[in-house]
Amino acid sequence: MPDGGMNGPIPFRAGSRQRKRQSGATQSVAGGGSALGGVATVTLDKVGMLNYLAIRVTATVTLSAGGAFATDGPWSVVDRIRVDLNLSNMNLVDVDGRMAYDLARQMFRGWAPDGGTNYTPSTLVFSAPVAMGANLWNLWYFVPISANPGSDYDTGLINLQAPEVQCNVSVRFAAAGANFVTNFTSLTVTNVAVHQCYFSSLDPRAVILPLGQVVRTVQFTQPVVATGENTITVERQGKLMNTTTRFEANGARSDGIDRLQVVANINDTMYDETADFNAEEFERDYSMPKPVGIFYKDFWHARESPGSGDGRDLINLEVLTTFQQKIFVSSGTTLGSGNNFYILGRRILVNFVSPATSGINPLSQ
């Protein structure tokens, strides 16, 4: 076996090549004249080590009169995005459309899929008019697979070229038009295209392959039935990289929160932040206005850029007895009946050695 030269194997960063492509054909979604509740499924091309996905959704949204977005904006036209590995039934990504949008904002400074009120994006990137009649919507969902596309790109890469590995992406649409826009009539001509960014090694026998790890991006929803303290106990898996909290009260995203806390082992309050302090931190870190009802904690932000770090602030959930994130709902917040939710999205780094996280590139043999 080659030893990579006189100096031994070279780092994966120096011995790999970034590549990008659309995976498979664009998928059309239809059923009964409408794509409501429909699902598009794409099996990713078996090439390289997967870094991230960019999913384009286009559709014709027809309205009976001028409409308005529901509380989670046009992004809730997608009810769920899932990325699944066939090995051990590993679920890499499982989030709703709005959570995918907010998690994407958390990874970059000053950028959002719709401009985030910072700038007006090209219509090639975002378009969601709500005029009476037929409107062409064009939405992009950024879905990170490894830690990030930059300095930590090789943390959590998925080895798609291993013969044993198959990775499927599914995009499920909202069950009802009212979930994303008012005065809804139909959702037609609906298409999904999945683009993948991946890395191929020049010769895996001469490079140091990335560690066997995966990054899981998932969310959990819990009803809010009263003001005051509301707690989500997070499962003890992996190292916590970041969380995104979405609070909805009486069917709408709300900033009606006094405090946010991160608590380990019941008594160790690691973070205790007022809502306005959390908002100030967000705008300083991401250079854009904080969205209503959205609160971030980024334990991976240990370098100058958001969403990148060296593990300095990661929380190892597996060494804790319990780990909780709490919100304290303001006493004056109006709660409805069955439409108040505490939604927690999170990214966790998990050690998982398998053909999906290691192996040999057959293209180099």
Task: Characterise the protein shown here.
The protein has two domains: 10-210, Viral coat protein p3 (Adenovirus Type 2 Hexon, domain 4, Distorted Sandwich), CATH 2.70.9; 215-351, Jelly Rolls (Sandwich). It is 6% helix and 43% strand. It is built from two helices and 22 strands. It has helices spanning 97-105, 275-286, and strands spanning 10-11, 16-22, 27-29, 39-43, 49-63, 78-85, 91-95, 133-144, 158-159, 167-173, 184-201, 207-208, 213-223, 228-233, 239-249, 252-253, 257-264, 268-274, 294-298, 315-316, 323-329, 341-351. Strand 15 and strand 16 (252-253) form a beta hairpin. The protein is globular and about 65 Å long.
Order of helices and strands: EEEEEEEHEEEEEEEEEEEHEEEE
CATH architecture of the largest domain: Distorted Sandwich
Roughly what is the average pLDDT, rounded to an integer? Answer: 91
Helix amount: under 10%
